[in-house]
Every structure is written in C-alpha cells, then in structure tokens.
Amino acid sequence: MKLGDLHPAAGSTHKKKRRGKGRGTGLGGTAGKGGKGHSARSGGGVHPWFEGGQMPAQRRLPKRGFKRANKVVFQVVDVGQVAELGQTTVGLALLAENGLVRAKGGPVKLLADGDVSSAVQVEVHAASAAAKAKIEAAGGSVQLVAR
C-alpha cells in the first residue's frame, strides 16, 4: 500500500451541493432555497440572534455596569517567585524568559507573597508597598520602569 492509494471508506464522504449551478445538479431553478421571499435572496435570512419574533435576549436582559476603557491590567509576580530565580538582577526580560509573565502581556506588578533572603534588584512597572519593604529588608532594591 502506498500513500497515493489511500482514500476514504465507501459512503463516508458526500459530494458538496453545488447550489445555483443549473438543472444538472438536482438543485436547479431555486438552488435549494425554496420559493421566493427574503430568505431566497442573497444576503437574506434572519440574523443569528433572531428568536422568531419573541422579545430577544439582548433586549429582555437588563444592562448593568460598564467596562472602563483605560483600565490597566497588571501581570502579577510574587516576591517568592523572584527569589526562586536565584538571580541578583531580575528584569522584565528575565521574567518573560522564565515564563512568569508574557512578553507582551501588559505591565508587571510585584506583590509581597513569599519570602526573599538574598539581595535582589528588581525592575518592574509597579510594586506593592509590602513587596518593596520585603526586598529592601533583604538588602535589595525595586526600580520602577515606565510603562
């Protein structure tokens, strides 16, 4: 058996209906779209959320709240995760390299979860006061970079 000899089992595939291609297709005349009317025209038919004239869900349900357009969503890194890297200087590139943040996932914020014992210099976009205190207590420093 060769790769070129392979074909689907008998009856497992069907020929595509060639709509609008004349009488020889078995769909001539109306091309399988029934008679006249809106749904027989090109671009015709109802939209996907049409519910047969019933009050549609997007009008029945109340509209609540809003989404802030300029909301800043930080990627979070913990002090403990930075300490596990075992580096003296930790920047954004190193965090992305080790899979702690996505390279283009937005700004990075340092939080105070975990412990650090050695001096580490960390470069992030933002840091909590508790995280900054933990790093500085271990002899390190936190440098904030512009977004």
Structure description:
The structure is a single chain. With 147 residues, this protein is of the alpha/beta class. It has a domain at 75-144: Ribosomal Protein L15, Chain: K, domain 2, CATH 3.100.10.10. The chain is 17% helix and 14% strand. It is built from four helices and six strands. The longest helix is centred in the last third of the chain and has 9 residues, at 129-137.
In short:
The chain has helices at residues 57-60, 79-84, 92-97, 129-137; strands spanning 75-78, 89-90, 108-111, 121-124, 126-127, 141-144.
What is this structure's SSE topology?
Elements (H helix, E strand, L loop, with lengths): L56 H4 L14 E4 H6 L4 E2 L1 H6 L10 E4 L9 E4 L1 E2 L1 H9 L3 E4 L3
Parallel strand pairs: 1-3, 2-4, 3-5, 4-6
Radius of gyration: 31 Å
State the helicity in percent bands. Answer: 10-25%
What is the H-and-E element order?
HEHEHEEEHE
Q: Number of helical segments?
A: 4
CATH A-level architecture of the domain at 75-144:
Ribosomal Protein L15, Chain: K, domain 2
Strand content: 5-15%
Poorly predicted parts: none
Q: How is the largest sheet built, in terms of strand order?
A: 1-3-5
Instruction: Give the total of beta strands.
Output: 6
The level 1 CATH classification of the domain at 75-144 is: Alpha Beta
Mean pLDDT: 93
Given the helix and strand composition, which structural class is it?
Answer: alpha/beta
| N→C terminal distance | 61 Å
Relevant terms:
3-stranded parallel β-sheet; single chain; Ribosomal Protein L15, Chain: K, domain 2; 6 strands; alpha/beta
